[in-house]
């Protein structure tokens, strides 16, 4: 798969994910809830997590229906986390994906409920009455729940909020972001891998790839937060600095953070090379895209 082929593949997969989300996120949820949910999920974001699911599923020749549902479920969890993170009780942000945040547009109570409903919908999407074997449904639900819960994303966010104004060393920062950001990105890769036949060695290699990629994503996020404008990022730039939060830039410095992102990319690429899987080109190019992005 060359770069042009990858771009065509990614565009087609993004269209498939957007169409599925449009079909599965209800407009008719009561009292305007559906409108808030759709505002928070549709027509925005990089959709990196769905692409990771679908690229990993492709690498193992996975089941298409299961992979597409897993891709949408991961994006629903990610979108719900952004809705809640942006609220005044958390990060208190007013801009997300280039538009006002959900609580600004719909009010805090509706934003909280929209996030709750997105989280529940993710597991509903993973458990259709037909089309995906019950054992695979259960495995996908388990992977997503562990990535999103106390040991993963929610736990990392708790550490993040508890660390405001406190010095963290690199190991503590790594642990926080392994949970807060990395767990869901790694979970995306493993959910895709679970959709097809895969041996233990390949599974372990993809787990290392996902872990390295997740940390690389956060390192680059911290770099962009201090080097790019809000208009480019689609969210408020400099927010972490203003909130006195520890970041890879504040702990390592800008140049060391940039070098660390490249080290993590090489770790991810090395894991792919030893996976033994025949087609990991999309996963490889996604790792490049994460590190080279400017928003």
Q: What does this protein structure show overall?
A:
The chain contains 15 helices and 2 strands. It has a two-stranded antiparallel ribbon. With about 300 residues, it is mainly α. Helix content is about 70%, strand content about 0%. The protein starts with a helix and ends with a helix. A hairpin with a 2-residue loop joins strand 1 (about 95) and strand 2. The longest helix has 28 residues, at about 200-225. The chain has helices spanning about 5-25, 35-40, 50-60, 65-85, 100-105, 110-125, 135-150, 155-160, 170-195, 200-225, 230-235, 240, 250, 255-275, 280-290, and strands at about 95, 100.
The best one-word shape is globular
Helices and strands: which structural class?
A: mainly alpha
Give the biggest beta sheet.
2 strands, antiparallel
Head-to-tail CA distance between termini = 25 Å
Ranges with pLDDT <50 over ≥5 residues? none
Mean pLDDT comes to 93
How much strand?
under 5%
Element-by-element helix/strand order: HHHHEEHHHHHHHHHHH
Strand order of the largest sheet: 1-2
Query: How large is the count of helical segments?
Result: 15
**Helical content (DSSP H or I, runs of 4+):** over 70%
Question: What is the fold's blueprint, element by element?
Answer:
Blueprint (H helix, E strand, L loop, with lengths): L2 H22 L8 H9 L6 H12 L4 H22 L9 E2 L2 E2 L1 H5 L1 H18 L8 H15 L4 H10 L7 H24 L6 H28 L2 H4 L5 H4 L5 H5 L1 H20 L7 H12 L3
Antiparallel strand pairs: 1-2
């Amino acid at each position: 798969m060359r770069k042009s082929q990858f771009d065509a593949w990614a565009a087609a997969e993004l269209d498939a994910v957007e169409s599925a989300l449009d079909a599965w996120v209800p407009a008719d949820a009561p009292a305007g809830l559906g409108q808030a949910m759709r505002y928070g999920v549709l027509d925005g974001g990089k959709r990196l997590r769905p692409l990771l699911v679908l690229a990993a599923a492709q690498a193992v020749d996975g089941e298409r229906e299961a992979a597409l549902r897993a891709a949408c479920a991961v994006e629903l969890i990610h979108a719900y986390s952004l809705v809640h993170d942006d609220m005044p009780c958390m990060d208190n942000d007013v801009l997300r994906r280039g538009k006002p945040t959900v609580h600004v547009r719909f009010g805090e109570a509706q934003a909280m409920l929209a996030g709750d409903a997105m989280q529940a919908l993710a597991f509903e999407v993973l458990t259709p009455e037909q089309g995906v074997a019950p054992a695979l449904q259960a495995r996908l639900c388990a992977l997503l729940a562990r990535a999103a819960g106390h040991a993963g994303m929610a736990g990392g966010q708790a550490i993040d909020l508890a660390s405001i104004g406190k010095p963290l060393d690199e190991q503590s920062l790594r642990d926080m972001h392994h949970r807060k950001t990395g767990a869901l990105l790694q979970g995306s890769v493993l959910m895709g891998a679970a959709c097809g036949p895969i041996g233990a060695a390949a599974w372990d290699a993809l787990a290392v790839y996902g872990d390295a990629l997740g940390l690389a994503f956060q390192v680059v996020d911290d770099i962009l937060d201090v080097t790019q404008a809000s208009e480019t990022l689609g969210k408020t730039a400099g927010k972490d600095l203003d909130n006195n939060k520890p970041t890879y830039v504040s702990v390592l410095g800008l140049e060391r953070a940039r070098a660390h992102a490249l080290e993590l990319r090489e770790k991810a690429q090395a894991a792919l090379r030893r996976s033994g899987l025949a087609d990991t080109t999309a996963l490889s190019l996604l790792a490049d895209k994460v590190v080279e992005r400017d928003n």
